[in-house]
């Protein structure tokens, strides 16, 4: 039951992250092109994007370390991880790139909060969230349709 719940949350939070990333990137783009104030809505969206990424990391680590057979195989395979493409993808590439994406988003959030000019806040929102989105998109298993909408 718990395993299914964590897998369901991990599968669906992905879509929340993608939606929030697109919204924050759009906000950053429109904010840079005008004289808009970086207000509560922009701040809330930026925080929600990062918070959803942290939730995704937490559920992903629970899956990787305690639930997923891929995690078990990665720890027991005696260096065969790098030789098997599927195992390498899940045990190394997916988790590494996603952690980097979260770090990029976190750095962007800090830069947004520290920026004193409105355009700088929007620019940081645009650049860092765009980079994070590109990284996330590069490691979502698009070829595995069964993973896209778990629970339906």
UniProtKB/TrEMBL annotation:
Q: Does the keyword Membrane apply?
A: yes
- Report which superkingdom the organism of origin falls in: Bacteria
Q: Which residues cross the membrane?
A: 12-32, 44-67, 87-105, 126-142
Q: Which UniProt keywords apply?
A: Membrane, Transmembrane, Transmembrane helix
- Give a yes or no for keyword Membrane in this entry: yes
Name under which the protein is recorded: Cytochrome B
Q: What are the top taxonomic ranks of the organism?
A: Bacteria, Pseudomonadati, Bacteroidota, Cytophagia, Cytophagales
């Amino acid at each position: 039951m718990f395993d299914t719940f964590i897998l369901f949350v991990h599968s669906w939070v992905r879509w929340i992250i993608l939606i929030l990333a697109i919204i924050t990137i759009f906000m950053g783009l429109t904010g840079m092109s005008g004289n808009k104030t970086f207000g509560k809505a922009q701040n809330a969206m930026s925080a929600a994007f990062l918070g959803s990424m942290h939730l995704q990391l937490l559920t992903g680590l629970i899956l990787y370390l305690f639930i997923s057979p891929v995690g078990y195989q990665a720890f027991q395979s005696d260096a065969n991880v790098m030789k098997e493409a599927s195992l390498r993808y899940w045990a190394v590439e997916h988790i590494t790139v996603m952690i980097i994406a979260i770090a990029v988003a976190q750095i962007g959030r800090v830069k947004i909060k520290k920026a004193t000019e409105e355009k700088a806040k929007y620019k940081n929102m645009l650049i860092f969230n765009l980079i994070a989105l590109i990284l996330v998109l590069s490691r979502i298993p698009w070829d595995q349709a069964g993973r896209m909408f778990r629970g339906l």
